[in-house]
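To whoever is covering the structure queue this week,

Two jobs came back overnight. Logging them here so there's a record in the thread.

Job A:
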Amino acid sequence: MLIAALLKVRWNHLSTYLIAGGDGPYYPLQVRSIMENLHLAFPDMPLLFLLDAAIAKALSIFQIASPDNCVLFAIVFTNIVLPPLAAIPVFLLVKEMKPEEKKILFPQYLIVAFAVLNFTTLILFPNSQLNKNAVAMIGVFFFLYYLIRILKHGLRKDFVWAAITLVACALTHFGSFSILLLVTFLVAAIHFLSNQNRFHFKQLKIILLFLTAVLIMLALIATLDFERFLRLIKIPLKVFEAPLLLFLLHDENPYMNPLAILTMVPANILAIIGLIVLLKNRRQLHSVNKTIGFTMVILTFFFSSPLLGIEWASRLFMMSYVPLAILYIITFNIVKSKLMRVIPLVLFTLMIFIYLFMGITFPTGQVITDEAFTEFKTLDDAVDFNSETLIAGRQDIRLLNSWFYRTKSSADYLLSQKDFYTYKAIYVVKQIKGSNLPSGRFRETTIPAGAIKKIGGEYFEVYQLANSDGWNFANGNFIVARGLITSVENNSIVIHNTKTNYTRTVCLTKNTQIHFMQNENQLANGIYVEVSGSRKPFSLAVDGDVIQVTKIPD
């Protein structure tokens, strides 16, 4: 735990926190809003923000620093101190699942270390946009601990603690809660199907209680953040959109390509070895260990599958260590083959040392350069940014603007005509250089012809939208493809992105909306377009909901 905490100190500095990660200012904005307005700035799960706000308020009362710095210090403090505590429930799991006559040996301690010194916790969770994920891991492992105790002992206090940890996860991080629902469903299904007394009243009572608790939690999530609730409902349809495997086969570079492979390959190898060990020893396994073991094998294969869509792969890959850790808590207790013991031990040891090295040497996720940041902090010298202005642009830039200048912000594809009547001024802040983001993530906002250029700096340009002319307002979807049309057919167009040099096939339907912002009146080769829509499952093609014809960027 101490090593994990010390490594997190490296990743968390007040001076760079706001410009680390694509959502750097998101947490500070949420916490400051609670302190000043008693509500979140954006819909989200509130528990961690409330804790950070309480710490920041205490620091502010004692005048430790300025109110804004107290907010930053509170967030950094919880991100350093809390996530390593996940080692505690993992250790309790080791004690609970080991045979009574056996002592805790090196392999079990290795798994405890792996739970807090893996790729996710050292490289991904220290990033400023994943604090909730990191803290929620404490609840995830505690919930698994109490779930196993329920299966083994059926004590009422374990039900109570399982419910408490489930609620804590739901109020901390939506994704972790979703994973716990999946885990519980699989455990219940495997346990129910393998149990001869399937229709025992006590089991049915447990199932009904669980379903009631889940419905209550879903209602709570829908109340706090309805968009996240809808995403939860749609997950089965979305999880295989634009599979990672297809990106790799087409030699494209998704957001996590090299790092994902470092997680995906060892996880699949270890899952295969774990499955072999479970199958060989299935007759001697305790029913609970069998249920949990096979559940964790399924989850590891799922979380580290190359067939996952690129959006979900980046999220689920980083969670594969959870079922992997539980699987090997069981496996190391029952494995008899030296080879089947040595290979996982070597892999886990190598992974821990590799990830420690990466945690020490990797860049800390600063998305803009120091020089660009310096210029950004002077933008209000020429423009009157305030709480009555709205900023559109790339997410990290507009959030940074909201933190420094207390402006409102909106994604450009959500900007509506109503906003012109609500705010005194609407600006687009566009970064032109000084970014550390890869080219695929350096998203540029198209500036309409009627926009007034207010600032033309070395790193940033600021435009004021005087009116709605030349802007496709509120199409409601993120742009998933942009570039020059190279082929036009009856039901599709092919788009070539000259910046990334990749092509996309966009499927057209009778409901596809086409907005011609230039003089063209039909789609043709050589026209520059931006496409909003959704990726097709098991394909790199895109369903084009909205196609906007615009000028070729400079």
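Job B:
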Amino acid sequence: MPSATDNMPSSHHQSEAPAAAALPSVSILIYAHNEKEALNRCLVSIQQTNQMLRHEILIIDDASKDGTAALVQDQFPQVTLVQNKSARGQVRSINQLLEKATGSYVLLLDARTTLQPHTLEQLTGILGKNPEAGIVGPRLAAPSGETLDICRSFPTITTSFPKFLQRVFFKQPASSPAQAGISKAGNSMEVEFVPWLCLLIRRETLSEVGRLDERISEGPVDADFCMRARSHGWKILYDPQQTVYLDSIERKSARMRFKKIWSAFYFFQKHSYLWRAESRDHAIIMPRAIEQFLLFSSDFIAIIGSYLLWSKIRGMLGFFTIATLPELLMTGFWIFCYWFLVFMFFGLYRTWYAYSRIDEVISIFKAVFFGVLLIFALTFEISDLSTPSTSRLLIVSYWVLMTLAVATGRGSLRTLQRRMLESGIGLRRTLIVGWNKKARSLYDKIQRFPALGYRVVGFVETSSPTDRQSHDGVPVIGSVSHLGQIVLRENIEEILIALSWKQRKFVMAVISQCAEKDVKLNIIPDLYGTVVGRARTNQIYGVPLIEILPEHMAPWEKKTKRLLDILVSAAVILIGLPFWLLVALIIKIDSRGPVLYSQERVGMKNRHYRMFKFRSMVQDAEKRSGPKWADKDDPRITKIGKWLRKTRIDEIPQFWNVLKGEMSLVGPRPERPYFVEKLRKEVPLYSRRLRVRPGISGWAQIKGDYDASLDTVKQKLQYDIFYLENMSLRLDFKILLMTLYVVLRGRGQ
């Protein structure tokens, strides 16, 4: 990796240029999906290239059904074959192979391409003679010899849209030499990018830039990679004298076309330009004003529509209703104004109010319930007592219509916003303050969950960076002392502070530099920081007091929670009793041993109790192994036990524990005394979980992985602490709904 002093591209790895007498080895990576014949021609052409060049071939078969894997195994045994059981897509598959490649150079090659003799040797020679270059590509041509896709400038709206029209309406090639804007000189030339249908990358470049961006599942993934390489100072070369032929076969499907469109939008958003790569004045985003307008429009249509439908139903039932449409619309407008004020009161128009659609529905339910209750109170008359059932039925019907209409409209909008975020549209430019394991782990989580809305443009170190540092292609772009200038220069909207406890003194420096700037600050705590960050601050005569680990659930919520536990548990046991008896019979027939399995667990206030489950393992499963967590494919699990665990039916007897008051529907998962004592010694905050009743389900169960080791339990403890510090009936309902979703999908283990 080049040092920080290597600011000029020409200084890249000059001492590492391959010797002429000993050509470097090349890893050839090929993606194949139902392209048996094309792949066969591609591999034959590779065999006919210069064999003096040491190379390895790695092929990934992305769930092909045409015998691609058999062809490779039978006719090309020297090739390394990786098989995906289910299709993962081209970009994700190539990233799989990148982890296995060992060559000094990596050649990304499409299965539809055919190499010419000496092409590979010439391309590696170009990089060998140009140490400042990180990527080189050849001329692509159709079997007829016609040049294909040589538009070597980064795509913009003015280039991408005409190409799209040419392909769809006129069936013309994507580009022509005139569009490329390059000369026809015999020597290689510097360009902005080369297509990844045949793209040779230097190993050092790959180490700096990182893997391909999997969110660009189709489309300009090559332009994105080359743009990132150029940002690291590498040159991109194109050699028109080296020709690679591309079959006319195209991977066409409606889904792929849709992905290409979204990938293009994401590419423009990621690099913050539409018209020119050098300009950031036309980034594709969803401005807050547009979001508010869409929310307003959705609610307007839902409220007016539900009122008109309700009026229609009233008229059909013979009750009084306004006769003319203008009068209905005028009344509906005033009703909308009323609901607009109610929704404002409940905070339903806050920016990016809820990424969770379940949160959105719960908030709408509460707001509509309050609004309908207020309407009932304001319009109540003594005469209504003569027909109480009818008047209440009308109110309830309007309540149901309003809730469904508003929830459907907002749910559709939130789904669209989520899809846009996952495609990179509307992400907020974000900095991570910190350069440590915690900061890099935070970045990895953000990459896994793009719907969070963050697009990390760089890390900020507490001290001056001495080397060219980066993580997954995202560089360290400065120090905390220059944070103010970085925020202005990079147009930062969000800052995530991921400092270690020893670096806490820098938090005030971050706050002071951003105090006058329009940027949102978020601090990411560790386990101890979670406790401190969720502390409640009170003041007595001006003296601040910090209450550590406060109880957030009000007494009336606790009583309601217990009442809900009793009602739901009794209903599950009594209503499903015939089915539970059938399950017991199947367990008895499947394997020897008792139907129920009981185990000692530690509950609230360190009380020990016996927890019951339907037996899903062989009898005396731990007699030889001792206490241990179940593995993913544990051989001790019976045949019927796999089904019981996957559907969570094995947990049903625990509703008896809930009725007895030993457990709750929602709470931290109970653990055995052996593991509780072990975890107490290693995790100081573990005892915090024993302050509430353990639950059949919980935040850790739906968010974390299945308990497989002590490390997994430690990670899930963070989720438990989050639940303890945010306990509410609303969160319990959300967890129950998400648990039902997990059960229906059969995601148990």
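Note for Job B: Confidence is low (pLDDT under 50) at residues 1-24, 170-186, 278-285, 527-549.

Please reply-all if you pick these up so we don't duplicate work.
Q.
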